[in-house]
Each structure stands twice: as structure tokens, then as C-alpha cells.
Amino acid sequence: MYGATAGMSDVAMNALGVETENRLGRSIMSSLHGMWSAGALLGSAAGTVAAHLGGDARLHHLIAALVLTALGLAFCQGVLDVHSAPEEEPPPRFSLPPKSALVIGAIGFCGVFAEGASLDWSAVYLRGELGSSAGLAAASTTAFALTMAVARLVGDRVVDRFGAVRTVRVGGAVATSAGPWWSSPRTPPSRWPDSA
Description:
Layout: H1 2-24, H2 29-53, H3 57-75, H4 99-128, H5 134-162, H6 164-182
Helix pairs in contact: 2-5, 4-5, 5-6
């Protein structure tokens, strides 16, 4: 339920972002995603503090849920009301995507998979496999969120300067070439032989 709800929210937010971008006539999508990263940065920083202080995770999640619900209700009052133009037929409630969308979706899945592995599981890996402290494990999420926020917040300037197509091509090439190096197997320090 959580995953389905989050996915639907992502689709709705990105659709509104595209509409806002079209109305402004300039690139803002990267900055919008950067603000999501900034929110993740604030959340992970709060998690780092809570973990360092040894706070109860249930209480921390309850407080976060209440704060986010209040913020969501307040800010959603200003969301664009997007409808089809009067002369256009309304889109169908359900339709299969075209083949071209499947290719783009596959690329998007690879990007989200890599991001999710880093953002969602780095703390689990550090804590469970390497035996790091809870505070350090939570700080790894904060560090990742910080670098992601910075990259996204400057992304619109890059797109406006070099164009969307060139930015995607170069970014894809960099990510593809860096992937094998970053994902090469490494033995965790806790499993190194004594002679190491």
C-alpha cells in the first residue's frame, strides 16, 4: 500500500511539474527533484540525530508522519488544477503504454534502482554488514541525500545551457562508465582475514 501510494504520488507530482515547466517555458524539473532531495536530506538528518540519541523509532516515525501530513495538507491547497483543454477528448482512464515508453521506463527503472539501493539500503549495509554505529549508518543516508540535492539543484542550469538531449546522453554515459567501477565486489572490513 505504501509503495503504490508513493508511486501514484510521484506520477502526480511529476505531471504537475511538467505542466508548471511548460507554463514557465524553462527547465525546472531538476530543481523540483532537488527540493525532494532537500526534504530527504532534512529527514535523514533528523533520523541521524534520533539514532545518535537512541530515540524510539516508533515515536520518531509518528512525529514525522504528523508533521508531513500537516505540511502536505497545507501545501496541496496551492496545487495546479490540471484538466484537458475543452476541445480535447479526455484521456482514457486506462491504456497500455506505447513501446517507446517501455524503453524509457526501463531506463528510468535502472536509475531508480541504483538510487534506491544507495539511498534506502546504505545505512542497512553499514549497520548490518560492517557493524557501524546507528549514527554513522544514518549519516551515510544524509551524505547521499546532500550530494543528490546539490546535483539536482544545479541540473536545470546544465539543461538550459547544453540542452536536455545532450545532458541525458552525457549523464547516461557517465553513469554507465562509473557503474562497473563502483559496483565491483569489495570485501567488507569485518570479513577481512586476520593477516590483512
